[in-house]
Amino acid sequence: MNISTALRGSTALVTGATSGIGKAVAQGLARLGAEVVLHGRDQARGEALVKEIAAEGGTARFVAADLTDAEDTLHLASQAGDVDILVSNAGLYQFTPTPATDAASFDRQIAVNTRAPFLLVGALAPGMVQRGQGSIVLVGSSAARMPAPVGAAYGASKAGVEILTRYWATEFGPSGVRVNAVSPGPVHTEGTSAMLGEHTAVLDKTNARGRAGDPSEIADIVSFLVSPASSYVNGSILFADGGELSALPN
């Protein structure tokens, strides 16, 4: 089977699609023939990506939404319409010690990282079930398994993503809807560059691979997970961390 046409005729919603991993995922799915609904908060960046994808021969449209707001999240689902593929990628992180993390920051990270995918799946999965097919990919993080002195709220929100993946695979799998997750380790993105500044090189020293990942490498995994090539993969959490978790004791 030629995977370059594997997604032709399907519609995919990608959250957090205007930068980093989400942008690479959206471009990858468009290249495979999917019509992509791009989500983000910045209208200008969203429309610019629509034009980039169109210039490559793909099809995309943009829907703005604030995923910290439950009503806006559900509005995004209604605007996306009948989707065959959901990639819940949007993420919010604040790597601070617990005493320095206030309730509002904790709530925002849980809202975007855990509640938003919960609401989107609740709104979109029934249509997939009715049609008897669909693929959902959640983007987690190695932070759910790799404790650090800071970022407990973020780690907790991403641990929730792993639990949701397993529950939903059980809930929707018998109806033909597959649910999987990819959990990246450190990846060079605009976000990590903004957070670390001139210290971004530290990301290249965290795993056995000796380098951080590229967004395109995560996008390739997502493309596999939503394609017919992974038709027997359900409820899996695929770690793309360059071997970061291999340093943990069994």
Keywords:
single chain; 250 residues; Rossmann fold; 7 helices
Walkthrough of the structure:
- By secondary structure, this protein is α/β, with parallel strands linked by helices.
- The chain has a single domain (3-241), classed as NAD(P)-binding Rossmann-like Domain (Rossmann fold).
- Helices cover 42% and strands 15% of the residues.
- The chain contains 7 helices and 7 strands; from the N terminus they run βαβαβαβαβαβααβ.
- It has helices at residues 20-31, 43-55, 70-80, 103-131, 152-172, 190-196, 215-226, and strands spanning 11-14, 35-40, 59-64, 85-88, 134-139, 177-184, 237-240.
- It has a 7-stranded parallel β-sheet with strand order 3-2-1-4-5-6-7, sandwiched between helices.
- Strand 4, helix 4 (103-131) and strand 5 form a beta-alpha-beta unit.
- Helix 3 packs parallel to helix 4 and helix 4 (103-131) packs parallel to helix 5 (152-172).
Strand order of the largest sheet: 3-2-1-4-5-6-7
Distance between the termini: 38 Å
Number of domain units: 1
Q: Gyration radius, to the nearest Å?
A: 17 Å
State the CATH class: Alpha Beta
Number of helices: 7
Q: Kindly name the structural category.
A: alpha/beta
The largest sheet is:
7 strands, parallel
Listing every helix as H and every strand as E from the N terminus to the C terminus, the arrangement reads EHEHEHEHEHEHHE
CATH architectural group: 3-Layer(aba) Sandwich
CATH-assigned homologous superfamily:
NAD(P)-binding Rossmann-like Domain
The name CATH uses for the topology is Rossmann fold
Protein name: SDR family oxidoreductase
Keywords: Oxidoreductase
InterPro entries: NAD(P)-bd_dom_sf (IPR036291), SDR_fam (IPR002347)
Family: Belongs to the short-chain dehydrogenases/reductases (SDR) family.
